From TrEMBL:
The keyword Signal applies. Residues 1-18 form the signal peptide. It comes from Roseivirga spongicola. This is Asparagine synthetase B. Keywords: Signal. It comes from the Bacteria. Pfam families: DUF2911 (PF11138).
Length: 186
């Protein structure tokens, strides 16, 4: 009993209390890999292929709102390509991003959405909240690609995936009624 009382006194004296963690983020973080499913290949005893590309990004939701071309992602303005912190993409080997050569490394990725065309931008500035601190002199590469409208139900949750194509991959971005594919050659 003395030990219990001593412990209570000790914790009270030093003001120790339970850690207060923040609530769940409305736009959770996710990751996509090329080749698809790569870090799980070893876990599930599948053929393990070398990881070529990885992207971390936040996934906002429509929740009945117009996001692309609206306040969240206005057409013609630099957008962080998701929510919260700007996504970071890692290339594990040199690539051709659209039509520009890019060295292996990690970059922040942004987009300038439009109704018919999107421009994707790689930046050397990492750990960036939104697009508020991006500067032209930190842009490493820029490339444009056409929009493909989705004929299906709206895509509720912002999503990025990679689709294997001859000579590389397409980074596929989908949200609202819009799908955009960015070619990346390996």
């Amino acid at each position: 009993m003395k030990k219990l009382i001593l412990l209570i006194c000790f914790f009270s004296a030093f003001g120790l209390s339970a850690q207060e963690f923040p609530g769940l983020d409305a736009s959770p973080m996710d990751a996509s890999y090329f080749p698809d499913g790569q870090p799980l290949d070893e876990v599930f005893q599948r053929d393990v292929r070398d990881l070529k590309i990885k992207i971390y990004y936040s996934r906002p939701q429509l929740k009945g709102r117009k996001m692309l071309g609206g306040e969240a992602a206005p057409f013609g303005e630099v957008w962080r390509l998701g929510a919260n912190e700007a996504p970071e993409i890692t290339f594990y080997e040199d690539v051709t991003f659209g039509d520009q050569k890019v060295s292996a490394g990690t970059y922040a990725i942004f987009a300038i959405p439009g109704e018919k065309e999107w421009e994707f931008i790689l930046s050397s500035k990492l750990n960036t909240w939104g697009n508020y601190t991006t500067k032209e002199d930190q842009f490493v590469a820029r490339t444009k690609t056409s929009v493909v409208k989705s004929s299906e139900e709206p895509i509720e949750v912002f999503s990025i995936m990679f689709k294997e194509v001859s000579g590389g991959a397409h980074m596929v971005v989908g949200w609202q009624n819009t799908i955009v594919e960015l070619p990346i050659k390996l």
